[in-house]
């Protein structure tokens, strides 16, 4: 009887043993190794500049640009910097987007160009044959570059596109009435009048080059200093004098 029991116990042990061994094998299995993909190196272009070809590369560059704190403050996130640089590229500055972005202002959440950038765009088109900008007194006399602001009555822009007749555009002190940003006009009256006349001329003669892009001085009656790092304004009204600009276009 005892012999039969020991044989039975021995058989039970033999049957149970594989289950224990199998459980031990499962516990010894290692977790799969996760291999992290190394980011692709961003290569310099033939001209030495950096601008990634893929979205990921450009985004990584924008993170570095924002971290440098050398962009205008309106481009304070990688996303904003990415859009700003893409905007500059689409304007035709694919080789100098960081230079162009300094003259891109964010007004009411939308990009506008300002300063000398509108004229630079027109010059790059190679369609500009002639441009002459100057101020006049009330009697129409042309004033020198160093003239006093109090002597200025109008800013004039004479311009000619290849294959077209020369045209003359004028913006007078009488056209300043009703402009919304008085401080700008007090500080930069001479510059603003000049860029107003220029903006009217460029938008009239080169619509295919500017493609309806907003010009800060022309469309919003504002500008920025060359050393400004802000370049961002909200809740500013669109210039009502644009209608006046169309009247001037028809006159000349």
Short précis:
With 252 residues, the chain is an alpha+beta fold. It has 9 helices and 7 strands; from the N terminus they run H-H-H-H-E-E-H-E-E-E-E-H-H-H-E-H. Strands 4-3-5-6 form a 4-stranded antiparallel sheet. A 3-stranded mixed sheet has the order 2-1-7, covered by helices on one side.
How would you describe what is shown here?
There is one protein chain. It is elongated and about 90 Å long. Strand 5 and strand 6 form a beta hairpin. The N and C termini lie far apart (126 Å). It is of the alpha+beta class. The strands form two sheets. A four-stranded antiparallel sheet has the order 4-3-5-6. Strands 2-1-7 form a three-stranded mixed sheet, covered by helices on one side. The chain has helices at 2-27, 55-68, 78-90, 97-100, 117-124, 182-205, 207-210, 216-220, 242-251; strands spanning 104-107, 110-113, 128-136, 142-143, 154-161, 167-172, 232-233. The chain has one domain (55-251). Helix 2 (55-68) crosses helix 3. It is 43% helix and 14% strand. The chain is built from nine helices and seven strands, in the order ααααββαββββαααβα.
């Amino acid at each position: 009887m005892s012999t039969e029991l020991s044989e039975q116990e021995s058989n039970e042990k033999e049957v149970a043993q594989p289950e224990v061994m199998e459980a031990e094998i499962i516990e010894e299995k290692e977790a799969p190794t996760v291999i992290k993909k190394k980011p692709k190196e961003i290569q310099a272009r033939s001209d030495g500049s950096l601008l990634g070809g893929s979205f990921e590369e450009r985004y990584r560059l924008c993170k570095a640009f924002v971290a440098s704190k050398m962009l205008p403050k309106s481009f304070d996130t990688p996303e904003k910097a990415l859009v700003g640089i893409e905007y500059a590229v689409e304007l035709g500055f694919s080789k100098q987007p960081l230079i162009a972005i300094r003259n891109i202002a964010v007004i009411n959440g939308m990009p506008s160009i300002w300063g000398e950038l509108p004229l630079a765009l027109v010059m790059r088109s190679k369609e500009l044959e002639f441009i002459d900008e100057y101020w006049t007194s009330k009697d129409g006399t042309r004033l020198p570059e160093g003239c006093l602001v109090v002597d200025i009555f109008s800013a004039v822009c004479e311009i000619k596109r290849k294959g077209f007749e020369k045209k003359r555009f004028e913006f007078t002190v009488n056209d300043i009435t009703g402009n919304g940003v008085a401080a700008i006009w007090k500080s930069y009256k001479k510059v603003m009048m000049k860029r107003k006349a220029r903006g009217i001329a460029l938008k009239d003669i080169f619509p295919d080059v500017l493609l309806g892009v907003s010009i800060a001085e022309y469309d919003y009656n504002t500008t920025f200093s060359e050393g400004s790092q802000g370049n961002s304004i909200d809740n500013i009204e669109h210039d009502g004098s644009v209608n006046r600009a169309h009247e001037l276009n028809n006159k000349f």
